[in-house]
Amino acid sequence: MKAIKYAAGAAAVMFAVASAQAGDFKPAVVFDMGGKFDKSFNEGVYNGVERFKSEAGTKYREFEVTNETQREQAIRKMAQRGSNPVLGIGFAQGPAIEKVATEFPDTNFAIIDMVVDKPNVQSIVFKEHEGSFLVGVLAAMASKSGKVGFVGGMDIPLIRKFACGFAQGAKHANADVEVIQNMTGSTPSAWNDPGRGAELTKGQFDRGVDVVFAAAGGTGIGVYQAAADAGKYAIGVDSNQNHLHPGTMLTSMLKRVDVAAYNVFKSSSEGKFVPGMNVLGLAEGGVGWALDEHNEKLISAEMKAAVDQAEADIIAGKIVVQDYMSDNKCDY
Amino acid sequence: MSTKVKKPLPVWADVALIPLINILLALFVAGLIVLAIGEDPFEALEILILGAFGYEESLGYTLYYTTNFIFTGLAVAVAFHASLFNIGGEGQAYIGGLGVGLILLALDGILPFWMLLPLAIMAAALFGTAWVAVPAYLQAYRGSHIVITTIMFNFIAYFLMNYLLVDVIKAPAQMSPESRVFADNAHMPFMHEILGWFGIETAATPLNGSLFWAVVCCIFVWIFIWRTRWGYMLRTVGQNESAAQYAGIDSRKIVMVALGISGALAGFVGMNEVMGVHHKVLLNFVAGYGFTGIAVSLMGRNHPVGIVLASLLFGILYQGGAELAFEIPAFSREFVVAIQGLIILFCGALTYMCKPWIEGLFYMLQSDPKPAEKEA
Amino acid sequence: MANTETLVEMVQPESESSPAAINLRGISKAFGPVQANDDVNLSVPKGTIHGIVGENGAGKSTLMSILYGFYEADRGDIYISGKKTKIKNSTDAIKAGIGMVHQHFMLVDNFTVLENIMLGAESGAMLSGSIAAARTELERLEREYGLFVNLDAITEELPVGEQQRVEILKALYRGAEILILDEPTGVLTPQETDQLFKILDSLRSQGVTVILITHKLREIMAITNNVSIMRQGKIVADRKTSETNREELAELMVGRKVRIEIDKDDPNPQAMLLDVDNLTVTDSQGIDRLDHVSFGIRAGEIVGIAGVSGNGQSELLEALSGIQPVSEGSFVLNGVTVNANNPKDAAEIRDLGCAHVPEDRLRLGLVKTFNAAESSILGYHLDPAYNGRILTKPDAIRNHCADLMESFDVRPRDPSLKSANFSGGNQQKLILAREMKDKPSVLLVGQPTRGVDIGAIEFIHKQIVAMRDEGSAILLVSVELDEVMSLADRILVMFEGRIVGEVSGKDADEKTLGLMMANALPRNNKQKQEGQA
């Protein structure tokens, strides 16, 4: 019975490809290779869509891809099953979204961290460099040694973008500051290697670093632990991680993928899905830095003033933060 | 004197019955787990099988995975016939893809497809071979164990590709560490395009012309291993190195040749992925196919026919497994990997677990008629 | 073996009435269509040595494998000391007090002797305690039976003869009361054989029951109390040894008269085809395994090498056949000089017209997993007769193999049967056929008749003499002194890697050779011999 039902369903999907109506609200999300519990990017999205689910009471379809080829397959399948909107996570899903969005012009798509120029796609990108700039300012001001560190996850342009903004911000606050950078690795496992993260951090501490910023997914856990053990400062990333080690977590650079994901579902459910570019920088509140009860004692009034000033200057265009990915280089 | 080995099972039992029983055992255990998480195992099995064969698109994906597994399975098998365990299919496939990509990036605007295709095949083979050449040399002439060196070369491949894609061949003004997309004339035609030429309309899938090359490779491997003097020497070295020495076979050269061919076969995964599916050089396209090739080869008894069947099985598991994760929310992708792991465990690692029982069964069945005859 | 003395006293006078140590009733075993054992009845009284003789494939090994638990009989019962006993595996057999020394040793090559003996008999999880105890016990056994082996030597580095002693020690260590020996003397020198027989004799006098499987009728006559003769899976006769003779046994075995003497003319040596000059092979530890050996072989003569196994014969064969590199000195083969600066591998040596029948056929001579056809071209696999430009010619290879099988009566005549599934004698015939087919000008032969039945031995010997008469130069290495004496025109004796003496085949007698092999000739005589060499 079930077999028949299933086969019939599959066949129906094939012939009814174009029947999905823009008005139907059946949200779906395709997580990328890190998986939805990656303690980072995908998990941020997961939290966002879960929040939507509990608030709106609407279930969503989900899939976690395990290889390159599955991205397109999964996104197409979502569209075939009438999901709308389909949310893709990560720049790597860009080409797949682009292709499938062409095949299904009546379905809405959204993608985080990538620009896909299609009339039915909302592209959500963040100005990570701006957020990184701010925590760079804080790092340089908190540092007594004049050396700050950066631990990246997998060595890809996006992470270099974080690193570059961070370095620029640090040098903005203190032109003499030295920024020491390490990448954890070159495979996706670099996103989830706390041991290696701790090792790199200790190495940086040995070289005089006393504030370290980690943009490394799950690897960051090791970085924060190492900083807590050594009594030095660490800066979290993506979500507010200040609570992890109150006292040594200087701050967290926020990248609100959860908000972005939530908003995609929310706006769609209200029939207000807007295709096109959705650039979330400081001005839009898409990035920022975290100040809460866990770190308020660590941030002096002077530091807060400086970082607020920098934020205002960036929003006003007085400070231009270099985007590594615009020209593949970093001057800082 | 009679031999001291037990009489072997009939060939069909060895190559078909035992793997089948192993698969059933694996499915049985997997079914128990499915039951434990509160889902219906039969429904899961239906979804798995229908998800792999049920409609055109799924079949295309299944065969696309199969293509990769045939390449890596053959790669492991050829080395295995020389008693070598090439565990570096992953890296060789990765670098093979790099070779294909470099050739196509350099010449895609210049040469027509029919000239690019042989060049890409050669590039995949050459780069794959080159990547195994150092481990092979170290094994043959310096006695470094091939398992260790090929694993290390997998890591070197990851880092090399990462460096190249992030810093050297990345197309400007884009986020992803990927090369630019090749010109259309450098794409291996998709199967739905090929069938389209004959007027057969099918769903678009990643399955492409590389499947034909995989079949060619199967035939090549069979001929090479069993119908050429080089294959003869290779098997001699693999089965009895002393006898090889007695026969005047230079086992060091054979090690180089066996691993070289193995690397080339693994490199063709790069062709399927880079030229056939993605049309650009990108990161992590190997996605474990190299490692799965070991299980495929083990299950396929290092024979091309067995490898094709085992590849198909793993294709089903990959595609049907994705379908499971898609259809049943309780099935995470980790769960699908666990089922694949069970199959590998029962069919690969525990291949011979139930052989004694089956042999016993055969003896019982075979010796039964004898007393009956006597009585009659 | 604790209360043996009282046991012996008890058993000996009333051996007729006390239960037999082993009593097999109606044992049958079939492998597919082959009836390996057919209703076998065998009774072995306690404290006797019982010989079992038969041609290759007569079912001796199968019978013993059933007794030792490798196979289960299709039908029939086993009684040990009068008690019906189920033996399903070797653990059951060991429990029943049965020990076995196999024709092909069951030793782990890279274990030490001690580790091999202890394998499967360890007590407790930690080895260290039981190792010390085992060492003490083994040293006692070694002293008692004169079976000296270096317990710390790596097994694969020992000569075959010593490996066998390890096997015997292993069985004794497990407290065997019944000892099965499968072709035990095939690898031993006469002295070692004598020593083995002394051991068996003393075991017998202590009440141990010994079953001896052999081809060698001389040994049956020398040591056994009773003998059973097997043919085609059946026991065709039981004899008291004192009431039979070699001729009768040989006839019962093969069912026809066999000549044990070899009929050959005087040699007619021609040109020197193999000239060995100060040939030396040094092993990885710097020991000269072959120590400045010089001799020559002319067309039309057979030169035999006698020696206790492990005295450099294997290295001589391997150096001359290109398997081992020459460390020092040289040899001239058909006019081509081979030395350390001009090495030749096995293929090149073969191309120079030198064929090689290796001593250890399973290790070197064939590939067990290959079918007979594939094994039949080992070493000749590049021959254009079997190869096209790219593809091999399977039909040509099959036909070649079928020819070899026909010419040397290899049974079964099935080129597609796995090499491992042929009996030892038939494997050997296939290898001999392969190496002799092309009428090589020089033939190196190691242990040509090891484990081969009488009918085949005679045939093989005839072939070797025929090759000599056709003008081949033949180097024969054998631990069978009978074989060397009857085949060789000249006999060289090797000891510790050197040639210590030479006698002509005609004048050779077993005693002198035996003394030379032990390097125990009176001083004058020995120096004379060395001077000649």
From TrEMBL, chain A:
Has UniProt tagged this entry with the keyword Cell membrane? yes
Q: What Pfam families has UniProt attached to this entry?
A: Bmp
Q: Entry's InterPro entries?
A: BMP_lipoprotein, Peripla_BP_I, PnrA-like
- Signal peptide range: 1-22
Main localization of the protein? membrane
Q: Which GO terms describe its cellular component?
A: plasma membrane
What Gene3D superfamilies does the record point to? 3.40.50.2300
Subcellular location(s): the record lists: Cell membrane
Q: In which domain of life is the source organism classified?
A: Bacteria
Q: Which CDD domains match?
A: PBP1_PrnA-like
- Membrane topology value: Lipid-anchor
ABC transporter substrate-binding protein PnrA-like domain boundaries: 28-321
Is the keyword Lipoprotein in the record?
Answer: yes
Q: Which UniProt keywords apply?
A: Cell membrane, Lipoprotein, Membrane, Signal
Entry's family note:
Belongs to the BMP lipoprotein family.
Q: What is this protein called?
A: Nucleoside-binding protein
UniProtKB/TrEMBL annotation, chain B:
Q: Does the keyword Aminoacyl-tRNA synthetase apply?
A: no
Q: Does the keyword Cell wall biogenesis/degradation apply?
A: no
**Which cellular components does GO assign to this protein?**
plasma membrane
Which membrane topology term applies here? Multi-pass membrane protein
From the record, give the transmembrane residue ranges: 12-37, 63-84, 91-107, 113-134, 146-166, 207-226, 254-275, 281-300, 307-329, 335-354
Intracellular or extracellular location(s): Cell membrane
Q: Which GO terms describe its molecular function?
A: transmembrane transporter activity
Q: Which UniProt keywords apply?
A: Cell membrane, Membrane, Transmembrane, Transmembrane helix
Q: What PANTHER family would the database entry show?
A: ABC TRANSPORTER, PERMEASE PROTEIN, GUANOSINE ABC TRANSPORTER PERMEASE PROTEIN NUPP
- The protein here is known as Nucleoside ABC transporter membrane protein
Naturally occurring in which organism (per UniProt): Aestuariispira insulae
TrEMBL record, chain C:
Which protein, by its recorded name, is this? Answer: Nucleoside ABC transporter ATP-binding protein
Q: Does the keyword Nucleus apply?
A: no
Q: How does it sit in the membrane?
A: Peripheral membrane protein
Return the InterPro entries for the record.
AAA+_ATPase, ABC_carbohydrate_import_ATPase, ABC_transporter-like_ATP-bd, ABC_transporter-like_CS, P-loop_NTPase
Arranged from A to Z, the UniProt key words for this protein are: ATP-binding, Cell membrane, Membrane, Nucleotide-binding, Repeat, Sugar transport, Translocase, Transport
Q: PANTHER family from the xrefs?
A: CARBOHYDRATE TRANSPORT ATP-BINDING PROTEIN MG119-RELATED, GUANOSINE IMPORT ATP-BINDING PROTEIN NUPO
Q: Name one GO molecular function term.
A: ATP hydrolysis activity
- Please tell me one Gene Ontology term that the record gives under cellular component: plasma membrane
> What does the organism's lineage look like at the top?
Bacteria, Pseudomonadati, Pseudomonadota, Alphaproteobacteria, Rhodospirillales
Cited Gene3D superfamilies = P-loop containing nucleotide triphosphate hydrolases
Q: Which organism is it from?
A: Aestuariispira insulae
Question: Short name of one Pfam family for this protein?
Answer: ABC_tran
- Record domain ABC transporter: where: 22-257, 274-521
Q: Which domain of life is it from?
A: Bacteria
Could you tell me which SMART domains the record lists for this protein?
Answer: AAA
Q: Which residues form a coiled coil?
A: none
Localization (cell): Cell membrane
